[in-house]
Structures are given as C-alpha cells and as structure tokens.
Specification:
Elements: E1 4-11, H1 14-26, E2 32-45, E3 48-62, H2 66-76, E4 85-88, H3 94-103
Antiparallel strand pairs: 1-3, 1-4, 2-3
C-alpha cells in the first residue's frame, strides 16, 4: 500500500474545473489532475432523478493532504454537495509515486 490517493471530483463546466485545478496545483495539493469532459452523470438529488453533463477530475495526491484538498475544493466548487472521493492506491510505479510526493511537498 502506498500513501498516494486518487481523488474524484465532478464539475459542471470547464471554468469551474479549470479554477479548481489551478487552485490545487498552485497550493501544491496535487501533482497532476486529469480533466475528462463529456461525462454524463445520472443521480438522485432532492427526490428526483437528474441527468447532467460534467467534467470528471482525477486528482493525484497523497493521503496526508486529503483535508486541505477537500477544503480547497469546497471553497471553489459551485455545487452545494460536490463529489469528493479519495481512493487509495495499493501499488504503483515507484518513480511515479515518488514524483507525486515530490510535487506535493
């Protein structure tokens, strides 16, 4: 098991996705963030089934930074309840894991 994490966060548009990426990278809370546009989310919200086109962010960081990451996303995200999920990584290419650590230190 490594201390690297992948965080998932969906954004409603490119502007909010770009803002969150810039804030996380400027604060060295993430080493790399992938933006996957064109995602269709289907979800239940306030008793109704909703459908939205979103941008999925895949954020590479490490576990010790979860709380500052969460706070930064909450400060800049337009959703009332944004997706913020941290997934642990059990294994990885060690030079890449080292790079994540270096870029978030």
């Amino acid at each position: 098991m490594t201390d690297a994490i992948l965080m998932l966060c969906t954004c409603p548009d490119e502007a909010s996705a770009d803002l969150i990426c810039e804030q996380l990278l400027d604060r060295r809370l993430a080493a790399c963030i992938n933006q996957l546009p064109g995602l269709t989310s289907v979800y239940r919200w306030q008793g109704r089934i909703e459908r939205a086109t979103e941008i999925q962010l895949i954020i590479k960081s490490h576990a010790a930074l979860f709380e500052p990451l969460r706070q930064c996303i909450l400060a800049h995200h337009p959703y009332e309840v944004p997706e913020i999920l941290a997934l642990p990584t059990s294994r990885g290419h060690q030079p890449y894991l080292d790079w994540i650590k270096q870029e978030t230190s």
